[in-house]
């Protein structure tokens, strides 16, 4: 078996111990989040009933299969496998919040859903203040995840376009505007 990583046993975190660059770390993170959101959204768009959706669009293994299709090297594949479960679970939890927003029929319901999401984000950010810098650097807010779902839709399921949209909106990724979710839903 080919050795994928050059281990640095003196490093203080896993990414550095595996000699993974920040660029590769970010790429793998976005691949996992994009793949999970894409499978959910495609299943929702193409099938009226949850039971009709193919397993590739509704299971963890379906999300993993899609994510693995985007990696180019054995190093990326190995690192994706290490990070996959925690990021995929984070996105699945966020999809629940997204569904709450999308299922809201009246403006009052939409505003309530938006306030709940903002309160959850504020609570998480408050707890984050007590953490060290490394944890803060890798933190993804619920609002950031919700915006990524919106960017997946705007990209029309094109990963390169998704990354372009993400980079273009980098400064606003953690900004929450309830109406933008409904506008993006209506435009697709």
Overview of the structural elements:
- By secondary structure, the protein is an all-alpha fold.
- The chain has one domain (14-187).
- 69% of the residues lie in helices and 0% in strands.
- It has 9 helices and no strands.
- It has helices at 14-17, 22-46, 60-68, 74-103, 107-128, 133-138, 142-154, 159-168, 178-187.
- Helix 3 (60-68) crosses helix 4.
- The protein is globular and about 55 Å long.
- The mean pLDDT is 83.
Strands, helices and their partners?
Elements: H1 14-17, H2 22-46, H3 60-68, H4 74-103, H5 107-128, H6 133-138, H7 142-154, H8 159-168, H9 178-187
Helix pairs in contact: 2-3, 2-4, 2-7, 3-4, 4-5, 4-7, 7-8, 7-9
List its salient traits.
single chain; 188 residues; mainly alpha; 9 helices
What's the gist of this structure?
This protein has 188 residues and is mainly α.
What is the total number of structural domains? 1
- Overall pLDDT: 83
Basic shape = globular
The N- to C-terminal Cα distance equals 46 Å
Helical fraction: 55-70%
- The ordered string of helix (H) and strand (E) elements is HHHHHHHHH
How many helices does DSSP assign?
A: 9
DSSP strand tally: 0
Largest sheet: none
Low-confidence region ranges: none
Percent of residues in beta strands? Answer: under 5%
Class from helix and strand fractions: mainly alpha
Radius of gyration: 17 Å
């Amino acid at each position: 078996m080919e050795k994928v990583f050059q281990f640095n046993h003196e490093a203080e975190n896993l990414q550095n111990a595996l000699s993974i660059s920040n660029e590769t770390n970010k790429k793998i993170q976005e691949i996992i989040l994009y793949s999970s959101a894409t499978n959910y959204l495609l299943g929702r768009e193409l099938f009226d009933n949850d039971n009709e959706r193919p397993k590739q669009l509704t299971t963890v293994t379906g999300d993993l299969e899609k994510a693995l299709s985007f990696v180019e090297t054995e190093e990326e594949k190995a690192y994706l496998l290490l990070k996959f479960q925690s990021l995929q679970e984070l996105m699945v939890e966020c999809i629940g919040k997204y569904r709450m927003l999308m299922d809201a029929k009246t403006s009052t319901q939409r505003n309530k859903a938006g306030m709940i999401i903002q309160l959850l984000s504020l609570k998480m950010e408050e707890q984050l203040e007590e953490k060290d810098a490394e944890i803060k650097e890798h933190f993804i807010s619920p609002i950031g995840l919700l915006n990524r779902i919106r960017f997946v839709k705007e990209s029309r399921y094109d990963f390169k376009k998704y990354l372009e949209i993400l980079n273009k909106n980098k400064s606003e990724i953690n900004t929450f505007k309830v109406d933008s979710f409904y506008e993006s839903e209506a435009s697709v």
